[in-house]
Inverse folding.
């Protein structure tokens, strides 16, 4: 089998290295020798992490997708413009395509998968979610006898690194973000990571496979971690929780929820202890129960592992397209974020005056919200106090009503912070 590689950066270079290192094992398992005759790069003179001496290198990616000798195209350049054009061209040339491009699949996957079906070729994307963790194959194959009830994951390593450092070392968000950029975990423009867009792309794909629906990226409720403060980390810890940035897809009656946001998780739960740049995805299914999938969510050889696993699926002719888009067996509505039920954490900054706490509890009561626990501390010389509150399970629209009511009071000194609490037992 001859493969053409679009991009020899971190992932593409990792693919070359892993194929060279493990070629004998892969050939023994599949009975097929994989060759890499052609690759496209941005600049032929740029340094690379792999040995490309026997690969025909070009700066014109269309030379690769139009090469009649190529059986499979690996799209590893990212983005949703030229990458989409190249994938369409490859499929129209009757070539199988493997991509690690979560943005491309999340936003254009329905169209591209339909085209692949029409041309009777594979479009596979295991590496698009959680790097080297084989979560898509686990949902699609290993758990195929199960009805999936919930998928919840730490699926962005940059965000997890930032929150881990904030908790373990008491550091501020901006300080840790700067270090993440210096270490190469975050881009110069970190918006996709810290505002949840990257995780939303991945959650959209997870939900489509878990629930057998079309890809619906535009319906994922998305909130990032840029507003999480050291105070939130501290109070969550005192209340027995860890703050993680989770992607959550779950059944809710006849509908499904798709949301990405900071989340308080009880410290005893396994996923609360996944730290640094690692990823983890928890799955609840009706036969197996709860299972957890953990590993490196990025990196050259970790992501290459997932790309090559898709390549081996193509060699073994294992179809992976029957669970998405045109053959979706279920078409549940996506629940509006106002109707999602959850426990909540709220942090208030209020005047530390007699009667304020009674007024606050009255507002909660008037909105039928129960306070499960509360921490109050004086924090500055202006006679202001932080109050951290844990509520009972209520609709999001009800807690937003509480927020608005408190912010309208004279005693309130800042915007009320709201963070979801999720029980994954």
């Amino acid at each position: 089998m001859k493969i053409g590689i679009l991009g020899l950066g971190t992932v593409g270079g990792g693919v070359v290295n892993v194929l060279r290192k493990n070629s004998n094992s892969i050939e023994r398992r599949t009975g097929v020798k994989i060759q890499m005759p052609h690759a496209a790069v941005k600049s032929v003179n740029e340094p690379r992490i792999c040995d490309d001496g026997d690969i025909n290198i070009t700066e014109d990616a269309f030379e690769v997708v139009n090469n009649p000798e190529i059986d499979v195209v690996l799209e590893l350049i990212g983005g949703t413009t030229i990458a989409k054009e190249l994938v369409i061209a490859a499929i129209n040339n009757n070539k199988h395509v493997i991509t690690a491009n979560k943005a491309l699949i999340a936003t254009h996957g329905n169209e591209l998968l339909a085209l692949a079906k029409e041309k009777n070729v594979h479009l596979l994307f295991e590496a698009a979610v959680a790097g080297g963790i084989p979560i898509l194959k686990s949902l699609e194959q290993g758990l195929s006898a199960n009805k999936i009830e919930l998928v919840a994951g730490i699926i962005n390593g940059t965000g997890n690194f930032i929150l881990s450092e904030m908790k373990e070392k008491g550091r501020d968000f901006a300080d840790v973000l700067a270090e993440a950029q210096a270490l190469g975990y975050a881009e110069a423009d970190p918006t996709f990571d810290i505002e949840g867009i990257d995780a939303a792309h991945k959650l959209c794909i997870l939900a489509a496979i878990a629930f057998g629906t079309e890809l619906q990226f535009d319906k994922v409720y998305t909130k990032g971690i840029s507003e999480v403060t050291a105070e939130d980390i501290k109070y969550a810890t005192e209340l027995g929780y860890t703050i993680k940035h989770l992607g959550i897809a779950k059944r809710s009656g006849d509908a499904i929820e798709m949301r990405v946001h900071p989340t308080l998780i009880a410290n005893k739960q396994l996923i609360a202890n996944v730290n640094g740049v690692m990823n983890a995805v928890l799955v609840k299914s009706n036969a197996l129960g709860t299972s957890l999938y953990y590993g490196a969510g990025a990196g050259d050889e970790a992501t290459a592992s997932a790309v090559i696993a898709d390549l081996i699926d193509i060699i073994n002719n294992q179809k992976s397209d029957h669970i998405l888009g045109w053959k979706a067996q279920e078409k549940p509505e996506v629940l509006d974020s106002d109707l999602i039920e959850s426990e909540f954490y709220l942090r208030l900054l209020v005047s530390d005056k007699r009667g304020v706490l009674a007024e606050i509890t009255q507002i909660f009561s008037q909105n039928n919200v129960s306070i499960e626990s509360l921490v109050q501390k004086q924090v500055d010389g202006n006679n202001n106090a932080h109050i951290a509150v844990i509520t009972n399970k209520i609709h999001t629209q009800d807690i937003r009503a509480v927020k608005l009511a408190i912010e309208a009071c004279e005693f309130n000194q800042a915007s009320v912070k709201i963070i979801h609490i999720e029980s994954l037992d």
Notes: Residues 291 and 341 are 23 Å apart (CA to CA). The first helix runs from residue 10 to 21.
